[in-house]
Design goal:
This protein is α+β, with helices and mostly antiparallel strands and 794 residues long. Helices cover 30% and strands 30% of the residues.
C-alpha cells in the first residue's frame, strides 16, 4: 500500500516537473562582455507578444540575469514571482565545489563557447529564464539576492485598447467610427449610466482595418449619455470609450426616451441617462386645449434623486385629468397628464351671469374652496381682484360662487379655482365664452356687408350696360379694305366693320357698303358718291386721302388670296414699264386719277356730312348696316379686286414717301397667317384677330378723353373706370366677333346681283386700272425687313 502511494506521488511530481520544464526553460552561459552593461540591478524582463489574437490577451515574459565570477561565491538566488507561480533558481559554476546554498532548482553555469583554459576571473554569465506567460494587468516580479546585496525588477502586462475617431451626423442620428490599422475590433454604442456601467448596448459590429477602417452606428436618440465603445475581438478585451454628446445643448430627444410612472402618492420620471446628469424641473399646468397648457404660478414640484430616476411627491396635488406636469430642460419642455378622471375629489363648472360668472362646485370631502379672476399671459394666469371663498360640507350638494366681472370685463379675464383648506397644489383655470354677446353685432355687420356688395354689383352692372359705349369710342374715321372674295373672309370683314361702327361709334368706309348704297341711290335717294358712280380706283383714292387728312386709320384685311394678287400685281407692273405705249397710257391714267381724286374729295365731303346726319338716327341706322352685311355675305362682288389693287398702290406710295403711320394690316387667325404678308410690308403694323383685338382698339384711338380748359387731361376716377370698361368691352366684342366668324373655309361666295348700269361702270373701271407714278417709283429695298410686335396693352 505504501509503495503504491509512493509511486503515485513520484508520477505526479514527474508530471508537474515535466510540464514546468516544457513551459519554461532556464539556461546559464558565459556572455559576451561587450553586451553587458553595468546597472544597479543586473536583471532585465523582456515581454513577447502572443500569436493568438482570439484568446485573452497575455504576454510571455523572459528573465535575463547577469552575474560575475565573484557573485557565485555569495550564494546568488533568483526569485521569480507571478500570479500563477513562484520560482526560485540557484545558479552555480561547474568548476566550483558545492557550496552550502540552496539545494533545489540549481542551475549550473558553464563556459559555453569560451576557451577551455581562458581566464574566468573577469567573465560574465547570463542566466535566461524563458518564459513566464502572464495575462493582461498581471505583474511579474524578479528579485536577485546575494549574501551582500539584493535588488528586484517588476513588469506589469498591459491591456491594449484600439485608438479610433468619431464623426457625428445629428440630422441622420448616426456616428461614423474610424479605427487605426491593426487587428480586428468590435464597435457599439451604449448609455453611460454610471462610471462603470454603460448599459443597453447596441448590437456590436466588427471592423477589419485590412478591409475597411470605418463603420456607421445608428442611434435612436441624441442624448448626453450616449457613448461609443471600441475594443479588440479577443476574449474579455478592455473597452475604449468615447462620449461625443456630453456638451449637447438640444435636449429634444430626452422626452421621447423618458417615461413617467404614477404611483399612489408619487410620480417617477425615468430616462435612459442618469437623472443627476440632467437639470430637469417639474411644475403643474392646466391643459386648456390640446396645444395650450397654462402654467400654474408657484407650483414647482420638489424632486428626490435616487441616482437614476427623479421621484416627485404628488400627495398634495389636485389630481384632475386636466392638471398636468410640465417637465422642463433648458430650451425645451414636455407636458405629461398622468391623472385619471376618478382621482379627483371635487368638480366645478362655469356658467354665465349678468356682468358676472357663476361657479358651481361639488365635493366628496369637506373643504374650503376659493376663486379669483386672472388674466392669461405667457407665464400663466395673473390673479386680479378679490378672492371669493365658500365652505362645503362634503355632502355632494352643489354650491354656487358669484364672481363679478363689471370692473374687469374689458380685459376678458378667466377664473382660477382651487381647494384652499385643506390645501391642494394646482389651480383650475376656467374661461367664460365672451363671443355670445357679439353675435348680434356680427349679424348686423354681415347684413350691411351683403347690402353694400349687392348695391355695388347693381351699380357695376348698370354702368357696364349703359356707360361702356360712352367711355370707349373711336372718333377718327376708319377705311376697311377687303382682299378676298372668299365668303369666310368677306363675312369676317363685315362683322369687324359692324362692331367698329355699332359698338365703338366709328365712321367706317368700306367698298362693299358704298356699293350697296349706290343700289339704294338708284331709287332716287343716293348721292352719287358710291363705287358704281366713281369707279373702284377713284373711290379708293378719294377715301384714302380723306381718311389720311382726318388722321384716321386705313386697315387692309390680308388673306392668302391677297398675297397671290400682290405677286401678280408686281409682275404686271414690271411688264408695263417695258413698252412706251403702256407708259403713255399710264401717264394719261395718272392725270385722270388726279382729276378724279379732286372730284372725289368734294363728293366725299358731302358723303361725310350725310354720315354725320345719319349717325344721329342711332340704332335704326345700325340695323340697316347689319342688313347690308348679311346681303354682302350672300352675293359676290366685282369691286374687291380693283379696290384692293388700288390700296396696294397707295400703300407702296405711302411707304416710299414715309407716310404710312395711319396704315395697318389685319388678318384673321385661322383664315390667314403672318407669313402670307410680303416682306415688303414688314414695316407696317399688323394685328392678328381675335388675338390682338384689344390692341387694335387702342391703335384706332378707342379711348375717350375729357377736355378741360382747352387741354386734354386724365382724371383719376374716369381714367380708372375707362380702363376697366375697355377691358370688359374688349372681351365682349372679341366673343361676338368670334361667333360671327364662319366655321368653314370651303363655302363659296355668290356674286352680288347688280344693275346693268353698275356692270357697265365696272367695265369702265377695268380700263382705268392704272397705277399712280408714286407707286411705280416704289422700291422694295427701302422697306424695313423687321416686323414690329403689336400685343394687347391690357
Amino acid at each position: 500500500m505504501f509503495k503504491m502511494r509512493f509511486g503515485a506521488a513520484l508520477a505526479f511530481i514527474a508530471i508537474v516537473v515535466c510540464a514546468r520544464l516544457l513551459e519554461c526553460t532556464t539556461t546559464c552561459q558565459m556572455a559576451n562582455q561587450n553586451d553587458y552593461v553595468e546597472r544597479d540591478c543586473p536583471v532585465k524582463l523582456t515581454p513577447v507578444l502572443p500569436q493568438d489574437s482570439t484568446m485573452i490577451y497575455s504576454e510571455c515574459v523572459t528573465v535575463h540575469v547577469w552575474m560575475k565570477a565573484e557573485d557565485f561565491s555569495k550564494c546568488p538566488k533568483i526569485e521569480i514571482l507571478s500570479k500563477k507561480s513562484k520560482d526560485v533558481i540557484w545558479p552555480t559554476l561547474k568548476q566550483r565545489k558545492r557550496q552550502k546554498c540552496g539545494s533545489e532548482n540549481r542551475v549550473k553555469c558553464d563556459k559555453g563557447v569560451a576557451e577551455p583554459h581562458s581566464n574566468t576571473t573577469f567573465a560574465v554569465w547570463e542566466l535566461v529564464h524563458d518564459c513566464i506567460k502572464t495575462a493582461a494587468n498581471h505583474v511579474v516580479s524578479v528579485s536577485y539576492i546575494t549574501t551582500s546585496s539584493s535588488c528586484s525588477v517588476s513588469y506589469t502586462v498591459p491591456d491594449p485598447i484600439p485608438d479610433f475617431d468619431l464623426s457625428v451626423n445629428q440630422s441622420s442620428k448616426s456616428i461614423s467610427v474610424t479605427v487605426e490599422p491593426g487587428d480586428k475590433v468590435h464597435a457599439r454604442w451604449c448609455y453611460q449610466r454610471t462610471a462603470w456601467n454603460c448599459g443597453a448596448p447596441s448590437p456590436r459590429i466588427t471592423i477589419d482595418p485590412s478591409q475597411s477602417r470605418s463603420a456607421v452606428l445608428d442611434i435612436p436618440y441624441l442624448l448626453p449619455c450616449v457613448c461609443v465603445q471600441v475594443y479588440y475581438t479577443r476574449t474579455d478585451s478592455r473597452r475604449h470609450k468615447k462620449c461625443p454628446f456630453q456638451s449637447l445643448t438640444d435636449f429634444r430627444d430626452v422626452w421621447p426616451s423618458s417615461g413617467v410612472t404614477l404611483y399612489e402618492s408619487s410620480l417617477n420620471w425615468s430616462s435612459e441617462c442618469p437623472a443627476s446628469d440632467l437639470n430637469v424641473s417639474a411644475s403643474l399646468c392646466w391643459r386648456q386645449n390640446e396645444h395650450l397648457c397654462i402654467p400654474v404660478l408657484n407650483s414647482t414640484l420638489q424632486d428626490k434623486d435616487d441616482g437614476t430616476n427623479l421621484i416627485y411627491d404628488t400627495s398634495a396635488v389636485d389630481k384632475h385629468p386636466q392638471m398636468c406636469v410640465q417637465f422642463s430642460l433648458p430650451g425645451s419642455h414636455n407636458v405629461s397628464c398622468p391623472f385619471q378622471p376618478d382621482m379627483s375629489s371635487w368638480e366645478v363648472y362655469i356658467g354665465p351671469g349678468r356682468q358676472s360668472v357663476f361657479l358651481y362646485l361639488t365635493s366628496h370631502v369637506p373643504a374650503k374652496f376659493s376663486a379669483q379672476l386672472c388674466v392669461l399671459t405667457n407665464s400663466g394666469c395673473t390673479p386680479m381682484g378679490q378672492v371669493h371663498s365658500v365652505i362645503m360640507g362634503g355632502s355632494m350638494t352643489e354650491l354656487r360662487i358669484n364672481v363679478p366681472l363689471k370692473s374687469f370685463l374689458a380685459k376678458k379675464p378667466c377664473v382660477q379655482v382651487w381647494r384652499s383648506d385643506p390645501a391642494l397644489r394646482g389651480r383650475r383655470i376656467l374661461c367664460p365664452d365672451y363671443t355670445h354677446n357679439r353675435w348680434g353685432m356680427y349679424a348686423v355687420a354681415a347684413l350691411v356687408f351683403v347690402v353694400i356688395v349687392a348695391l355695388l354689383g347693381i351699380f357695376i352692372h348698370h354702368l357696364t350696360k349703359n356707360g361702356a359705349a360712352g367711355l370707349l369710342c373711336i372718333q377718327e374715321p376708319v377705311l376697311l379694305v377687303c382682299s378676298s372674295e372668299q365668303s369666310a373672309h368677306v363675312s369676317a370683314v363685315c362683322a369687324l366693320a359692324s362692331i367698329l361702327q355699332g359698338e365703338l361709334s366709328a365712321e367706317v368706309h368700306m367698298a362693299l357698303w358704298a356699293q350697296t348704297s349706290q343700289a339704294k341711290a338708284g331709287t332716287g335717294t343716293g348721292t352719287g358718291t358710291g363705287v358704281a358712280d366713281l369707279g373702284p380706283l377713284p373711290w379708293l383714292y378719294g377715301q384714302w386721302e380723306a381718311v389720311r387728312k382726318a388722321q384716321g386709320r386705313m386697315l387692309i384685311v390680308w388673306s392668302p388670296d391677297a398675297r397671290k394678287m400682290y405677286e401678280k400685281w408686281r409682275e404686271e407692273r414690271a411688264n408695263m414699264g417695258k413698252t412706251e405705249t403702256k407708259e403713255e397710257d399710264y401717264g394719261k391714267a395718272e392725270v385722270r386719277h388726279e382729276n378724279m381724286t379732286e372730284e372725289d374729295l368734294n363728293l366725299n365731303g358731302r358723303r361725310q356730312g350725310k354720315w354725320k346726319k345719319d349717325k344721329a338716327v342711332g340704332k335704326k341706322d345700325y340695323k340697316i348696316r347689319e342688313d347690308k352685311d348679311l346681303y354682302t355675305q350672300r352675293e359676290p362682288s366685282s369691286v374687291i379686286t380693283p379696290v384692293f389693287t388700288a390700296a396696294l398702290a397707295c400703300l407702296e406710295g405711302a411707304l416710299q414717301e414715309g407716310k404710312c403711320q395711319g396704315v395697318a394690316l389685319v388678318y384673321f387667325q385661322g383664315l390667314c397667317h403672318s407669313r402670307d404678308i410680303p416682306k415688303a410690308f414688314r414695316g407696317v403694323p399688323r394685328y392678328c384677330l381675335l388675338q390682338d383685338f384689344r390692341g387694335l382698339i387702342q391703335e384706332l384711338g378707342g379711348m375717350r378723353r375729357w377736355i378741360k380748359t382747352g387741354k386734354f387731361r386724365w382724371h383719376c376716377w374716369p381714367r380708372l373706370l375707362s380702363k376697366v370698361m375697355s377691358i370688359w368691352l374688349a372681351r365682349q366684342l372679341a366673343q361676338r366677333l368670334q361667333t360671327l366668324l364662319p366655321q368653314t373655309h370651303r363655302e363659296k361666295m355668290q356674286r352680288l346681283r347688280v344693275t346693268s348700269s353698275v356692270k357697265m361702270m365696272s367695265d369702265k373701271t377695268q380700263s382705268r386700272l392704272k397705277l399712280p407714278q408714286a407707286a411705280n417709283l416704289a422700291r422694295p429695298g427701302t422697306v424695313q425687313e423687321h416686323e414690329p410686335l403689336h400685343e394687347s396693352p391690357w
